[in-house]
Write a structure and sequence with these properties.
Layout: H1 5-12, E1 18-20, H2 26-30, H3 40-50, H4 56-83, H5 91-107, H6 113-129, H7 143-170, H8 178-187, H9 199-214, H10 216-230, H11 232-246, H12 256-261, H13 263-275, E2 284-286, E3 290-293, E4 296-298, E5 303-304, H14 309-312, H15 335-338, H16 356-373
Antiparallel strand pairs: 1-2, 2-5, 3-4
Length: 388
C-alpha cells in the first residue's frame, strides 16, 4: 500500500511495471476484449482515440443534455415530495439521475426510454458482481451470473444505439450525443486516429463509461448534496454566484460559457471530491520486478495499491484537511494550487480518468440547478456517515 504521494504516483505512472488489477470476475462481466483491459502501448493508443469524446466541442453537446435530464428528475423529486414530504434516502435517487444522464449523453435518442430504464436497473447487478470479495463463478443465482445477464441485456441495447447512430450520421443528421460526435470525428478527413469501429466495440466503450458514471460519479454527486446541506453558508454562496451568472433566469438551459463563469461552484466541486473522494485506491499488480525505491523492489506478481486519500488529506498541502473549504482553490498561492500532483481524485498517468471534464461538469450543473430550485436539508441518521 503506497503511503505517500510519491509512491502512489510512481505506481500509477509505471505501466511497464504494473497494471490495474481488477477482481477476478471483471473480465467475465465486462468482456475480456474490452478496451479497459488493454495494457502498454495498445492501451495508450486506444485511449488517445477516445480523448476526442471529451473535447470542449463535445462537452458543448453534452451540456444541454445534462441540463435537461437534471430538470426532468427534479420535477419527479418535487412530485414525490408533494405526496410524501418525509426525508428520503438519496443514494439510489442520485444514481438513477446519473445513469439517465449518462445514457442520454452517450446514446442520445438512439435507444428507447424503456431501454434506459432497463439498463439503469440491471447495471446495479454488474456493480455488485465487482465487489472485492465475491464468489468468482457464474453459477445461476450468483452475483456473477446475474451480472453477465445484465451485461448481455445492456450490450444488446448499446449495439442498437451504435447502429442507429451510424444510420443517422450517414443521413447527415447533426450530432446530438457522444456516439454521434465520435462518428463525425472519425469521418473527418483531418482526423489522424481514423479506423472503423464495429457496433460491438462502440457498445463496449459505452459499457465501460457507464460503470464510472453510475459508481464514482454518483458517489461524488451524493457527497456534493450532503456537503451543500451540511454547509448552508456554501449553499448561499453557490446561489449568489448563480444569480450573478444567470441573472435570475433559472428556466433557460445553462450554457458552457455560463459554466465557465461559475468559479465558486467549480471550486466547491473540486473540494467536495477532495474531502470525500469517490475512489480511495485502485489495486495494481506488478507484472515484473518493480524497483519502486532505492532499497526495495516489489516482487513480480505482487499487488501494489496507490492510496489517494492520504495525498488528498496531506495537511502540508491542505491545511485543516478534513474541513470543506472551497476558497482554497480560488487562491492561486494556496498549497492546493501550488501542489497539483497531490490532487489524485482522478488518478494519474496512463490510467487517469478519461472523463474528468464530463464528470465534474455534470456534478456542477446538477448542483447549480438544485441549489436554485430547492432548499436542501440533510436529515442526519446513525447511517449518514456509513459508506455502502
Amino acid at each position: 500500500m503506497a503511503s505517500t504521494n510519491e509512491y502512489a504516483r510512481k505506481i500509477l505512472n509505471s505501466p511497464t511495471y504494473a497494471e490495474p488489477c481488477l477482481v477476478y470476475s471483471a473480465k467475465k462481466v465486462l468482456l475480456p476484449e474490452n478496451w479497459v483491459f488493454l495494457t502498454g502501448k495498445e492501451h495508450v493508443d486506444y485511449r488517445r482515440g477516445l480523448n476526442t469524446l471529451f473535447t470542449r466541442k463535445a462537452l458543448g453537446i453534452y451540456c444541454n443534455i445534462q441540463d435537461a435530464i437534471a430538470r426532468k428528475h427534479f420535477a419527479k423529486w418535487r412530485e414525490a415530495a408533494a405526496k410524501d414530504p418525509s426525508p428520503q434516502p438519496i443514494m439510489m435517487t442520485a444514481r438513477y439521475l446519473n445513469m439517465d444522464t449518462s445514457l442520454r449523453v452517450f446514446c442520445g435518442n438512439h435507444i428507447p426510454e424503456e431501454a434506459a430504464i432497463e439498463i439503469s436497473d440491471k447495471y446495479w447487478d454488474i456493480t455488485k458482481a465487482l465487489e472485492l470479495v465475491n464468489f468468482p463463478f457464474a453459477i445461476p443465482g450468483t452475483k456473477i451470473y446475474k451480472a453477465i445477464q445484465a451485461r448481455k441485456s445492456a450490450m444488446n441495447w448499446l449495439e442498437l444505439a451504435a447502429k442507429n447512430a451510424k444510420i443517422a450520421m450517414a443521413q447527415g443528421a447533426e450530432p446530438e450525443c457522444l456516439l454521434d460526435h465520435w462518428l463525425v470525428t472519425l469521418a473527418d478527413p483531418s482526423y489522424k486516429g481514423k479506423r472503423e469501429f464495429t457496433d460491438h466495440e462502440m457498445a463496449m466503450v459505452v459499457l465501460s463509461f457507464l460503470f464510472a458514471s453510475q459508481d464514482a460519479m454518483s458517489s461524488g454527486l451524493i457527497y456534493g448534496f450532503q456537503h451543500v446541506a451540511d454547509h448552508p453558508e456554501i449553499h448561499a454562496k453557490i446561489r449568489e454566484e448563480q444569480e450573478r451568472v444567470r441573472h435570475g433566469d433559472y428556466d433557460s438551459p445553462i450554457t458552457l460559457e455560463q459554466y465557465d463563469q461559475m468559479t465558486y461552484l467549480q471550486a466547491f466541486v473540486k473540494e467536495s471530491l477532495r474531502v470525500k473522494p469517490p475512489v480511495l485506491m485502485v489495486p495494481y499488480k506488478a507484472t515484473k520486478a518493480f524497483p519502486i525505491a532505492d532499497d526495495y523492489t516489489v516482487p513480480s506478481g505482487s499487488m501494489v495499491i496507490p492510496s489517494f486519500f492520504l495525498s488528498l488529506h496531506d495537511p502540508e498541502v491542505y491545511p485543516e484537511p478534513e474541513k470543506l473549504i472551497p476558497d482554497r482553490w480560488l487562491d492561486p498561492n494556496s498549497g492546493a494550487n501550488t501542489n497539483p500532483k497531490n490532487y489524485l481524485v482522478w488518478g494519474a498517468g496512463p490510467h487517469r480518468c478519461i472523463g474528468v471534464e464530463y464528470a465534474t461538469m455534470n456534478m456542477a450543473l446538477v448542483l447549480a440547478i438544485a441549489c436554485t430550485t430547492f432548499n436542501i436539508e440533510h436529515d442526519v441518521t446513525p447511517l449518514s456517515s456509513e459508506i455502502e
